Each structure stands twice: as C-alpha cells, then as structure tokens.
Amino acid sequence: MAKKVLVIDDDENQVRFLTVALEESGYDALKAYNGKDGLEMIRNERPDLVLLDLMMPKKTGFTLFHQLRKDDEYKDLPVIMLSGVAEVLEDLDSSSDDTHARPYDSLREAMRDKIRNMKGDGLLKPEMFIDKPIDPELVVDKVRELIGN
Amino acid sequence: MLKRVPFYWKLTIAFAFVIMLILMIDISLERISEVKLRFFLIIAVTVILSSISAWMIVRLTVRPSLSKLAQGMDKLAKKRFDVRLNENDKDEFGHIFSSFNVMAVLISSYQTELVRAKDFLNSILESTADIIISVNARKEILTFNSGAEKALGYMREEVIGKPIEMIFADPEEREVAIKRLKYGDNVVNFETKFLTKSGEVKDVLLTLTLMRHAEGTFVGTFGISKDITEMKRLQNQLIQSQRLSAIGEVFIGIQHSMKNMLNTCKGGAYMVRTGLAKDKREMFEEGWEIVQIGIDRMSDLSKDLLKYVKDWKPKLEPVDLSKVLSDIDTEIRKSAKDKGIEFHLDIAKELPEIPCDAPMIHSVMMDIVSNAVDACFWKDYSDLEKPNVCVKAYLRNGRDKAVLEVADNGCGMTEEVKKKIFTPFFSTKSKAGTGLGLSITSRMIEVHNGNIDVESEPDMGTVFRIMLPMNVNLKNKEISDGKESAGN
User: Fold this and answer.
1) ipTM exceeding cut-off 0.85 for this assembly
2) CB contact under 8 A, B378 and A11
C-alpha cells in the first residue's frame, strides 16, 4: 500500500503541484488548506509524513506542530516545514543576538522567538525545513529520505 | 583754636581788626592838615589792610581745608576708596568733609558691587563651553571667551581687534545672519561653519544679538555659538545607517515577495515539464495556469512598487461616500459570503458630500475591507461566534471630520504587529498580496490630510478608523476646478 503524505498549506497552487509531484512518485497525497482541517485529517487519515506550512489561517503551522509534538500519538510523526525561514535558523546558528550587523526582516523578527523555542527543545524540532521557492522534486526526494517509498 | 571758630565769625573779627587799625592810623595822621590827602590815605591804607587781612584769613583758615579736600579727591580718583576726611571742624568745611566721606563710602560700595557683578558675568562667560564672541561696529573682535579659545584654537590675544570674518568658514554666511538681524532683533540658532586656527571646519549653531547704546546707535554684535560638529557627525552617521537599513529592508521585502511568486512559477513549471514528459495535457495546462498566476502576481508587485513611490496628488471633489461604499459592498460581499463572513454596511443618514479623491478612497476602503475579510478568514471561530465585517460612515461630533470605520471580529493583531502594519513589505500573510497594501493606503490618507486610527486585540478583532477633514478651505479652488472639468 502506498505511503500517505499530507500537505497542509493555504496556498492552493502549492498544494496542487506538491500533490502532483508526490502522486507522480507513487505516494498517496492528501491535502488540507488550513491548520484546523489539517489536524482533523491527521486524526482521520493517519498520514506517514506531513508537509506543513507555517503561516496559515485558523491554526498556524507553529500551533499545529506543537500540538502534534505534545500528543503521544503523533509525537513521532515526521514533519517537513515548508517555509522561508530555514535561513533564519542558519542565522541563529551562526551568529549571536546582534541583529544590527545586517538588515533585518520584519517577518523574520516576528518568527525569531518561535523558531528559537523550536530549536531550544530537541524534541520540538521538525525533521526538516525546506525553503521557498520550493522545488517539488526536491521535496519528494526528502520525503523518500525520511519514510522511504 | 582758630579752626573751631565758624567762618562768619572769623570775617567779623577780621573786619573789626581792620577798622581798629584804620582808626589808629587816622588818629596818628591828625597832623596832616589837608583833608583830601588824609581821606585818600585812609582809603588806600584801608584797601591794603583789608586785602592783607582777607588774604591772611584765607591762608590761615580756608586753604588748609581746601587742600585737604583736594588731597581726598585725589586719593578717590586713584581708587583709594578708604580715604576719609576729619569731620571734627565745626565750620562749613566740616559739613563738606562729612558729605565727602559719605560719598566715598557710597562710591566704594558701588565699586565693590560692580566688581562682583563683573566677576559673576565673567565667570559665566568663562565657564561655559559655548563660544561667546562680541564684535564692534567695525567688525573687530572685542571679547573672546575661553569656550571660544577651546573650540577654535586661538588665544584671545591673537584675535582681539582682528576682523570677525577670520573665524567664519564662509564669511558671506555672517552677512546673511547680519542681514536677518537687521530685520529682527536677533537671529536664533543660525546654522553655520567656523574655521579653527588649524583650518578645521566646525559646525555651529549661532545666536546673534545686536548691541545698541541706550539712544539706539549700533555698537556691535554679541554672538553665542554652540559647537555641534560631533552631534552632526553622529546624526549623519545615524541617517546613513538608517538609509542603509531602510534600503536593506526594502530589498529583503522585495526578495521575500518575489520568493513567493517564484515559488508559484517553479511549481507550475514542474507541472508543465512533467505534463510534457508524460504526455499529460491536463497537467501541462494546469501547470501553465499556475505559472501564469505567478507572473500576474509579479506584475502586481511591480505596479504596487510604482504606486508606492508615486507622488500622490489627490483631486478633491465633493464625493457621495455612499456610492463609493456600495461599490465596495458589491465587490466584497460575494467573496465574504463564500468564506462564511457576514458583511454589513451602515451609512449615516444625511451624510453630506465629503471633499476627497473618490478613486483613492475606493482603493483605501477596498484594501482595509479585504484585510478585515482576511482577518476573519484566519480566525478559528467557536460555535457561538460568527465572523462579521462592519463598515460605517458618519460625521464625527463637531462635524469637522468624516469617519470611515471598518470593524471585524477576526484574528486581531498583537501590539508588535500593529506597530508595523504600515511598514512597507511587513506582512503576516506570507502568500497573498505584495506587503505594500497598507503602506499605500496610509500614504493616500496622508495626502488627504486625514489620519488612520487602529484598535486591535488578538482573537477579538480590529477596528480601522479613517478620518477625513471636512473643512478643506485651501482646496476649495481645486474643488471648483474639479467641478468645471467634470462639467466639460
């Protein structure tokens, strides 16, 4: 039986090309357009992996992710975060708190704390971040890396 | 002993003495028979004796007192204020001496007071770090305080009497300040540049005052300058770094926006490629459509960028806001309904026409109302609550401002987000929009001389209030012009 991968993102186009790419590689692709529906889908369909966007209506990717990690049933469910903040993580890794040294991005600033929290607790870290612009084939490769075919 | 006798007594005694002498001479000349000769002799002797006795009296009594007075005056003139005259004399000189002593005491105390006041002023002039220079009517430096010495590197001996122009980097600037001075009485915080002895240029703020005599003749100028070189340097550094950071912010904003658009294009391109490779026409077409969406969004960004930098000049005309708002109602109601959001429109009865630029206000309201709809869409509502957006138009109490209010019960904003919503490219909606919407909106309101007020609370909702001035006197002409051109 094909492995199930759930794509949760409010960008319909992104959901569309990711599901196409997953299906082309033999996965069973599921989709949800916001965090709330996404959680319901996880409960009902029990996917093998979740591709999760950060900024979404109803329930953000952050909230959903935390909820999953705190839940014994889903704490081991592999999650790939789809976001433009992977580089922020690199920034955090490579530098101190001195944000004056380079121009800052208001968006990144708003996310900084949340990501820091995520980093602080090893358990709370998602398996992977993938930055935009997303290459659908790369996503499929990463999915394969994590859960196999 | 003679000194204690009053002056008139002395005269009386002298005359008595002269008369006695004359009588004695008269008796001794009895032998001279000719009456005439005898008379002339008596007269001559009288005159001589009177003169001698008058001279003796002055010599013996008045002169010592006068010379004492003269000596006293002399000492006073030599600033020996402790000089005192003996007041024991009972005559008029005693009075004069006592008046002299009072005068000497007074002069001495005035002098002390003057010295003290002068010292006080000097200590102020010398202790301040400000550059204080006074100049006479011939433009020569009169005084040069230690602040000036420190700041400009000259010793006062080097500059006093020299032309004031020597310390100005551009002497013409002094003339500009002086010209201004002639129209008013002083020039406050005139920004100019001084030249130090070593040739360094210092930025200063000069406050110049005219010095006049009591009768009004111009005697020179008095200038206090503050050295602001360091302050200016820091200010320039700050401006520079702010400029860099602003440019950086804009670049990152554009890059972020483009990244989202590229994401769409890249995904669409993948589908086009796969559709072609696997000969799936449907996938190819769908992919192409997605690429098209990405391209459209890029052209939106390009338009918004232009819109943002445009020099907005509103064409003010009396506008019936109910018409503008009902257009927005038509455009928004359906998409709101599709998302399960209720939309209310409430326009105050008898709302007069508002002086504004209708297309701009339409764009502003469209932006804010769409944001309100998005805010509702983003919130996870409980069963007890229903998403709604309410638009109101009314006149503020006092009828000086028209208010356009957009209230929603959507996801709301934290204080930090609220602070940044008018910043270009700040966006919490990573995919939709260009991040320039509210920045453009706020600029449009600004050029109307209006203002935007935002109240928001996370999970409770947001209220945007746009206030447009009703009394646009200055723009009356534009309003009537607008009418004419509309009529043409």
Assistant:
1) no
2) no
CB-based contact B249 A106, cutoff 8 Å: yes
Q: What string of H, E and C letters represents the secondary structure of B108-159?
A: HHHHHHHHHHHHHHHHHHHHCCCEEEEEECCCEEEEECHHHHHHHCCCHHHH
Question: Is B244 close to A103, i.e. CB distance below 8 A?
Answer: yes
Nearest by CB to residue B267, choosing from A14, A84, A103, is A14
B299-316 average pLDDT score: 86
Which residue of chain A has the CA closest to B256? Answer: A84
* CATH level 2 (architecture), domain B317-487: 2-Layer Sandwich (3.30)
For chain A, which residues make up each domain, given as ranges? 4-87+126-139
Interface contact flag, A20 B264, Cβ < 8 Å: no
Contact B266 A134 (CB under 8 A): yes
Indicate the range of A14-23, B245-254, B347-356 predicted with least confidence: B245-254
Contacts of A15 in chain B (CB under 8 A): none
One of 3.40.50.2300, 1.10.260.40, 3.40.50.800, 3.40.50.300 is the CATH number of A4-87+126-139, namely 3.40.50.2300
Do B365 and B326 contact (CB within 8 A), yes or no?
no
Sequence length of chain A is 149
Chain A positions touching B373 (Cβ under 8 A) are none
Which amino acid does the sequence have at B359? P
Domain range annotation of chain B? 2-110, 128-227, 233-309, 317-487
Is the minimum CB–CB distance between B15 and chain A shorter than 8 Å?
Answer: no
Environment class of B21 (CB within 10 Å of its CB; exposed 0-12, middle 13-18, buried 19+): middle
Task: Provide the pLDDT for residue A101.
Answer: 36
Instruction: Decide if A103 and B252 are in contact by the 8 Å CB cutoff.
Output: yes
CB-closest option in A16, A21, A84 to B259 = A84
Which range, of A21-30, A45-54, B248-257, averages the lowest pLDDT?
Answer: B248-257
pTM value is 0.58
ω into A133 cis (within 30 of 0): yes
Instruction: Give the Cα separation of B409 and B428 in Å (integer).
Output: 17
Question: Taking the domain B128-227, which CATH number applies?
Answer: 3.30.450.20
